[in-house]
Amino acid sequence: MEKLFSYGTLRSKQIQMQLFSKILTGSPDQLLGHKLKSLQIEEEFGMADYVVAVPTVDSSDPIHGIAYNISASDLAKVDIFESNAYKRVQVELKSGAVAWVYIENK
Question: Matching InterPro entries, A to Z (predicted)?
Answer without folding.
Answer: AIG2-like_dom, GGCT-like, GGCT-like_sf
